[in-house]
Amino acid sequence: MQELEKIAVLGGGSWATALVKILSENKADVRWWLRNPDDVHHLQQYGHNPRYLSGVRFDLNFVHPSSNLEETLKEADWVILAVPAAFVQEALAGLPADGFQGKTLVSAVKGMIPKENLLITDFLEQHFGVPADRQCVIAGPCHAEEVALEKQSYLTIGSHDLERAEKFCDLLRNRYVKANPLDDIDGVEYCAVIKNIIALACGIAHGLNYGDNFQAVMVSNSLEEIEHFLDALMPLHRDLKGSAYLGDLLVTAYSQFSRNRTFGNMIGRGYTVKSAQVEMNMVAEGYYAVKSIYELNQKYKVEMPITTAVYNILYEQVSPGVEIDILKEKFR
Ligand SMILES: NC(=O)c1ccc[n+]([C@@H]2O[C@H](COP(=O)([O-])OP(=O)(O)OC[C@H]3O[C@@H](n4cnc5c(N)ncnc54)[C@H](O)[C@@H]3O)[C@@H](O)[C@H]2O)c1
Ligand SMILES: O=P(O)(O)OC[C@H](O)CO
């Protein structure tokens, strides 16, 4: 009998839960790390995550929840990181520098390590010595909530090693998930970070009562911002119309499930950052991402009006109305 692939999934939120569903239904041996021991206990007893996507049931023959990170990683060939970027360092704090040796790391995170302003793949390489060709990222427009409902979804697996990416695609493919490999790993990773900022801006505008007409112009203008930033950091002929770029931007900017748009909408309606965060129970990566991209861009000096506006609103206490007025005059 063929041995099952051993996959460790790190994180207890919606995306980790959705990925565990996909992988375990494909009969992989999934070791699932959640930081909260009560959630682990609940999963072991009732077979579902009490906090996120709680309607998804797991077959505990294939899913092994634990709050012990080293135990979870022990025999895994693949490790999927699905913790919000701001908490990645804290989650991995107890691990030795060679804790991922011999494993393939797959980042499902769409954010950057704050302060260091590093992509997750760069962080894993610099802090844990995981070579670039042993890493993949999960990109594409895919909300965990729709995976839970088994709605048709598309994922792109970015990697410098396309054979490895193709293997991982195979672990994901099912009746409602299509997956394709792509070699522009840094491009899709940065694009996933910036689209969260754009969705936050769309939410802010919506909260200020701007309509679909304005949002469409915001999203079209944002493509230029993304393209210029990517070209400044890593020039490459890439097709931004692809679903891993434009598709991901659109789903986050328009979907009712979007954390970033929801967060922005609250800010536009006058919530403080703190109160919006408390109300959400979920993490809007764009809040942290805008600081990283803004700071990083001090070196590259790309014109990024939407990023600047969101940064000024969230970190410089400029009124959302003032910043959106500035954008209104700039957009074409
Ligand atoms: N949800 C999606 O549809 C989706 C899709 C693709 C990628 N992602 C990415 O997956 C990553 C995980 O996001 P998510 O959507 O699963 O999260 P979520 O918003 O559903 O849940 C929040 C997660 O953050 C954790 N958390 C909150 N406060 C914390 C703290 N102080 N310390 C440590 N952990 C804390 C919670 O335990 C929970 O696991 C993000 O980078 C996100 O961009 C999410
Ligand atoms: O749309 P958000 O803000 O919930 O982010 C989730 C994913 O990035 C969608 O692909």
TrEMBL record:
Pathway: Membrane lipid metabolism; glycerophospholipid metabolism. Residues 6-163 form the Glycerol-3-phosphate dehydrogenase NAD-dependent N-terminal domain. PROSITE patterns: NAD_G3PDH. It is found in: Cytoplasm. Keywords: Cytoplasm, Lipid biosynthesis, Lipid metabolism, NAD, NADP, Nucleotide-binding, Oxidoreductase, Phospholipid biosynthesis, Phospholipid metabolism. Sn-glycerol 3-phosphate binds at K110, G140, K195, D248, S258, R259, N260. InterPro entries: 6-PGluconate_DH-like_C_sf (IPR008927), 6PGD_dom2 (IPR013328), G3P_DH_NAD-dep (IPR006168), G3P_DH_NAD-dep_C (IPR006109), G3P_DH_NAD-dep_N (IPR011128), NAD(P)-bd_dom_sf (IPR036291). Gene3D superfamilies: N-(1-d-carboxylethyl)-l-norvaline Dehydrogenase, domain 2, NAD(P)-binding Rossmann-like Domain. Its main location: cytoplasm. The keyword Glycoprotein does not apply. Residues 184-320 form the Glycerol-3-phosphate dehydrogenase NAD-dependent C-terminal domain. NADPH binds at S14, W15, R35, Y52, K110, A144, R259, V283, E285. Transmembrane segments: none annotated. It is an enzyme of class 1 (oxidoreductase). GO terms for molecular function: glycerol-3-phosphate dehydrogenase (NAD+) activity; glycerol-3-phosphate dehydrogenase (NADP+) activity; NAD binding. Substrate binds at K110, R259, N260. NAD(+) binds at F87, A144, R259. SUPFAM superfamilies: 6-phosphogluconate dehydrogenase C-terminal domain-like (SSF48179), NAD(P)-binding Rossmann-fold domains (SSF51735). One of its GO terms (cellular component) is cytosol. It catalyses: sn-glycerol 3-phosphate + NAD(+) = dihydroxyacetone phosphate + NADH + H(+); sn-glycerol 3-phosphate + NADP(+) = dihydroxyacetone phosphate + NADPH + H(+). Belongs to the NAD-dependent glycerol-3-phosphate dehydrogenase family. Catalyzes the reduction of the glycolytic intermediate dihydroxyacetone phosphate (DHAP) to sn-glycerol 3-phosphate (G3P), the key precursor for phospholipid synthesis. This is Glycerol-3-phosphate dehydrogenase [NAD(P)+]. It comes from Rufibacter radiotolerans. The lineage of its organism: Bacteria, Pseudomonadati, Bacteroidota, Cytophagia, Cytophagales.
